[in-house]
């Protein structure tokens, strides 16, 4: 019994296993990172996508090695991080990668190649960074069957400065020999066949079988692309009822070239007295400009040779003539403060281009005779052919020509053929005269039929040239709303035809209006709107023409269109703008929003368009864009912008205009093999800006970027931005103090207004300078004044305004000190500088009439003589002698109304001396000069205080008796003793003489 149960269980198990086996393969496919084949096919795997960034990995086998390519988008972070990766085989042994030099991987990353080192074979980002980075890393390894790919981000620790791992992840990868991408990834969407309601009607595709499924080849697309294609197919089936088939084969997508991206090579700058390139070269003239050196960033050789400016390119996709494109930017100072800025961009032909099939569709209607439009078309086609012929890839180009007008008139076709076989025939195909109407819908269909004949893997392009509205179309049967159209502008017609009766041509020949082509010749033809069953009017031929264009675009054929001197269509009640909108709906609008439509307002612009279009189709710089913001410290010189062709092969004319909001934008650049342009303009240093700092390095521009392909507007690379500086000046200021009274106590800190002017302008004040000093010195001065203040107040005074040498026009500034704004009371300031620039001033204390106050002192002991004397003052402007009043304590003053004036000489006479003192032998002379300087005879010192001339008058005692206890007493004693001795001696001598007698 148990045995039967187990048999039953095993039967169920094997039944389930058999059911699940088909899904096992799918499950295994989901686990395998990338399946590699041995035929050189490339496969892409998305890696991480987190807060540190995201990355994808692709690789292919080639002989005995694997060629890898990793695209890394590193996100900005607060702290500098470093990206690294490594590979190990099945035995956990490190695999040493070899970095490619073609895309500068060796400049941005380094490999630890010594086996003795800890991180042997790991690949590190050379410089940690905290800004957004985009890297394209190419490298190779020996061929192995399986390996583990490890990625990581690390950062320096705050404490130890050692590298700390922030994120790491490993990816097991199997390298298989068989091609699994073709064997198991085909996905098909089908549905029941729709039957046509009208045997004579056809889909726009010109096939009468609506049930035929359309195949979309995704090549090596990733899962996101496949999912997107599924959704598009579902949407298209809902709209058209045509089954859609999606395959993922090994074929290369026709759009693969447009997806080529370039890892930015970010220029390196340092912040030291401003910002300038870490490595730089200088123009020979004056060293005021530092330029980025291009690919040899890090070398110092550039500083020795300014002529290298012509080679300072940053190259992408190779070097020299083999680079996909190269960019350069440098500047030089041509006159004081005036800088010429140059941006050079060099293009090339696409080196690994998918073969291209091109059909020229040219309007041969009667209106093309006007303004020699046909002649310009013929000339333009000749240039178009010559450009392709000189590209070096003409063997990969097929080309044909549809010339069209209307039924019954000249309509001719050159079938799609090898370029080299048919190039001369196409040059000569355009007629000299034309006639008829404009049946654009049929011409587009004929061109697409040529493109669909063969080579489904080729890129398909239609170039349409027309000067007017379509005046004929097929009769529409079904329409859809324009919002459901792919790769089409939404402005213009509301509907586009999805089904027409190709056996019935309608149109009036001179307008797009279809009025009168309704039932019984009335009103407009009718059509069914989608699956609604609602009937709508089809008012003009644009509806079917745009419908044909949309069907072509859905088959991945690009339509590039030129509207030549278009006009309004009054018969269809369409304005000029209405016509333009509908012409734009015919052209392709790419997934990235690029509209392949242009307008020629002059017939002469046709040739330029065709020449430019040829370059755009085959070149590495296709619809490129430059964004060049003028630096904050610089002003653009009006009308100085120009663009010149400087390569071996001339470029077509490039449209440009002066910058808007200080940003130069150059669009639709197409540069191929041997072509190079130079964008040139002038800027001036904004030295008059309040934030200007002399000798500081200012970037001449903001971040200057270049997007080489209009289909990838976010894939931008950076130009190296030059930096420039401008000098400033230093001022000096001197103040001489002149004080008649010799009293400096009234001095204070001074403020001077600073002004400037040029040779051709009047001066104006711009700030203030403070001057202070020591009162013991008669001269205050400052030198090397490089900054001034915006205020003249002690509480807010701060010297922040620099002094540039010249103004925004390069004219030298002449600086001057215009006035002293806070002179001390009773001082008069005066500019005594030689050239009147106020660099030297004199402050003279203002003289006021003086009172006089004298004090009597003892000439010997300097003590005050508190005994009354009498004095009189005479001379000068006095009417007569005036007596002093005694105020006690030796002080004498004049009446309040008696004042001494400058320019006068007065005499002080002592009438009577204090008791016991000798009177002055002569009057004292008091002389006051015109400048207020005072001198008093006998060199008597004086002071002026509170407007009083104050000095002391000494008197000598009459009899100089010795003072008690003084040394004079001993002299008296000595004299007395001497006299006594002499007298006694004389007495004895006399008596002796008498006795002898």
Automatic annotation (TrEMBL):
InterPro entries: GBS104-like_Ig (IPR049319), Ig-like_fold (IPR013783), SpaA_PFL_dom_1 (IPR041033), VWF_A (IPR002035), vWFA_dom_sf (IPR036465). Residues 200-210 have a biased composition (Low complexity). CDD domains: vWFA. Residues 228-239 have a biased composition (Basic and acidic residues). Residues 177-240 are annotated as: Disordered. The chain crosses the membrane at residues 970-989. Residues 357-621 form the VWFA domain. It holds the Pfam family SpaA. Gene3D superfamilies: 2.60.40.2110, Immunoglobulins, von Willebrand factor, type A domain. SUPFAM superfamilies: vWA-like. This is VWFA domain-containing protein.
């Amino acid at each position: 019994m148990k045995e039967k149960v187990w048999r039953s269980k095993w039967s169920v198990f094997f039944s389930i296993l058999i059911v699940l086996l088909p899904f096992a393969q799918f499950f295994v496919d989901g686990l395998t990172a990338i399946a590699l084949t041995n035929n050189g096919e490339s496969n892409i795997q998305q890696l991480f996508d987190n807060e540190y960034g995201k990355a994808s990995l692709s690789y292919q086998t080639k002989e005995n090695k694997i060629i890898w390519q990793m695209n890394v988008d590193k996100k900005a972070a607060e702290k500098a991080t470093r990206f690294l990766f490594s590979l190990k085989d099945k035995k956990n042994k490190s695999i040493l990668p070899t970095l490619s030099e073609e895309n500068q991987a060796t400049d941005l990353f380094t490999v630890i190649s010594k086996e003795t080192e800890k991180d042997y074979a790991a690949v590190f980002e050379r410089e940690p960074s905290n800004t957004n980075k985009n890297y394209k890393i190419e490298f190779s390894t020996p061929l192995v069957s399986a390996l583990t790919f490890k990625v990581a981000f690390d950062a320096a620790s705050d404490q130890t400065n050692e590298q700390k791992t922030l994120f790491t992840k490993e990816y097991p990868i199997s390298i298989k020999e068989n091609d699994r991408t073709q064997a198991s990834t085909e996905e098909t969407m089908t549905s029941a066949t729709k039957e046509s309601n009208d045997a004579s009607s056809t889909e726009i595709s010109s096939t009468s079988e609506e049930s035929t499924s359309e195949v979309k080849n995704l090549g090596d697309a990733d899962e996101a692309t496949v999912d997107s294609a599924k959704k598009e197919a579902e949407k298209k089936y809902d709209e058209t009822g045509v089954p859609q088939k999606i395959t993922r084969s090994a074929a290369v997508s026709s759009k693969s070239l447009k997806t080529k991206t370039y890892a930015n090579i970010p220029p390196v700058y340092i912040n030291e007295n401003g910002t300038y390139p870490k490595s730089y070269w200088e123009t020979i003239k004056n060293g005021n400009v530092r330029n980025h050196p291009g690919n040899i960033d890090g070398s110092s050789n550039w500083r020795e040779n300014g002529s290298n400016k012509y080679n300072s390119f940053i190259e992408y996709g190779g070097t020299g003539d083999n680079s996909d494109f190269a960019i350069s930017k440098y500047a030089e100072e041509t006159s004081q403060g005036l800088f010429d800025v140059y941006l050079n961009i060099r293009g090339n032909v696409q080196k690994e281009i998918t073969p291209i099939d091109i059909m020229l569709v040219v309007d041969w209607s009667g209106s093309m005779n006007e303004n020699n439009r046909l002649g310009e078309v013929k000339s333009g086609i000749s240039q178009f052919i010559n450009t392709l012929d000189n590209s070096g890839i003409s063997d990969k180009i097929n080309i044909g020509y549809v010339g069209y007008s209307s039924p019954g008139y000249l309509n001719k076709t050159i079938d799609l053929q090898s370029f080299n076989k048919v190039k001369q025939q196409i040059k000569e195909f355009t007629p000299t005269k034309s006639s008829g109407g404009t049946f654009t819908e049929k011409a587009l269909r004929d061109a697409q039929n040529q493109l669909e004949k063969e080579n489904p893997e080729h890129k398909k392009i239609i170039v349409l040239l027309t000067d007017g509205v379509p005046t004929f179309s097929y009769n529409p049967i079904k329409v859809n709303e324009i919002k459901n159209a792919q790769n089409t502008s939404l402005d213009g017609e509301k509907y586009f035809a999805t089904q027409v009766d190709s056996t019935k041509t309608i149109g009036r020949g001179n307008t797009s209006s279809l009025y009168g082509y309704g039932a019984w010749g009335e009103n407009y033809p009718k059509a069914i709107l989608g699956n609604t069953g609602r009937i709508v009017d089809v008012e003009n031929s644009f509806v079917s023409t745009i419908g044909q264009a949309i069907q072509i675009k859905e088959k991945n054929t690009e339509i590039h269109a030129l509207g030549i001197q278009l006009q309004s269509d009054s018969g269809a009640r369409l304005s000029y703008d209405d016509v333009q909108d509908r012409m734009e709906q015919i052209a392709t609008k790419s997934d990235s929003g690029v509209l392949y439509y242009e307008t020629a307002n002059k017939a002469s612009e046709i040739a330029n368009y065709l020449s430019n279009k040829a370059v755009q189709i085959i070149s590495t710089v296709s619809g490129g864009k430059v964004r060049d913001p003028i630096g904050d410290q610089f002003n653009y010189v009006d009308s100085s912008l120009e663009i010149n062709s400087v390569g071996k092969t001339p470029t077509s004319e490039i449209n440009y205009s002066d910058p808007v909001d200080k940003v130069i934008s150059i669009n639709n650049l197409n540069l191929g093999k041997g072509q190079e342009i130079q964008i040139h303009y002038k800027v001036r240093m904004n030295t008059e800006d309040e934030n200007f700092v002399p000798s500081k390095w200012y970037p001449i521009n903001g971040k200057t970027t270049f997007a080489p392909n209009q289909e990838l507007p976010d894939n931008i690379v950076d130009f190296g931005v030059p930096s420039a500086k401008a000098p400033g000046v230093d001022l000096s200021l001197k103040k001489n103090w002149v004080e008649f009274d010799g009293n400096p106590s009234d001095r204070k800190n001074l403020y001077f207004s600073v002004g400037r002017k040029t040779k051709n302008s009047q001066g104006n004040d711009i700030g203030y300078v403070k001057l202070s000093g020591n009162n013991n010195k008669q001269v205050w001065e400052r030198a090397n004044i490089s900054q001034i203040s915006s205020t003249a107040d002690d509480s807010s005074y701060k010297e922040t305004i620099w002094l540039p040498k010249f103004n925004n026009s390069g004219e030298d500034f002449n600086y001057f000190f215009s006035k002293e704004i806070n002179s001390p009371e009773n001082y008069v300031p005066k500019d005594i500088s030689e050239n009147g620039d106020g660099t030297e001033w004199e402050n003279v204390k203002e003289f006021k009439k003086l009172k006089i106050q004298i004090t009597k002192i003892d000439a010997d002991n300097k003590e005050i003589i508190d005994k009354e004397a009498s004095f009189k003052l005479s001379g000068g402007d006095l009417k007569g002698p005036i007596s002093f009043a005694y105020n006690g304590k030796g002080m004498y003053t004049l009446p309040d109304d008696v004042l001494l004036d400058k320019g006068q000489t007065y005499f002080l006479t002592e009438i009577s001396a204090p008791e016991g003192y000798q009177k002055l032998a002569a009057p004292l002379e008091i002389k006051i000069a015109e400048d207020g300087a005072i001198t008093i005879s006998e060199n008597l010192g004086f002071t002026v205080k509170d407007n009083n001339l104050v000095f002391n008058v000494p008197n000598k005692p009459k009899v100089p008796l010795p003072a008690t206890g003084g040394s004079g007493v001993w002299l008296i004693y000595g004299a007395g003793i001497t006299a006594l001795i002499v007298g006694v001696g004389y007495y004895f001598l006399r008596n002796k003489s008498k006795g002898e007698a």
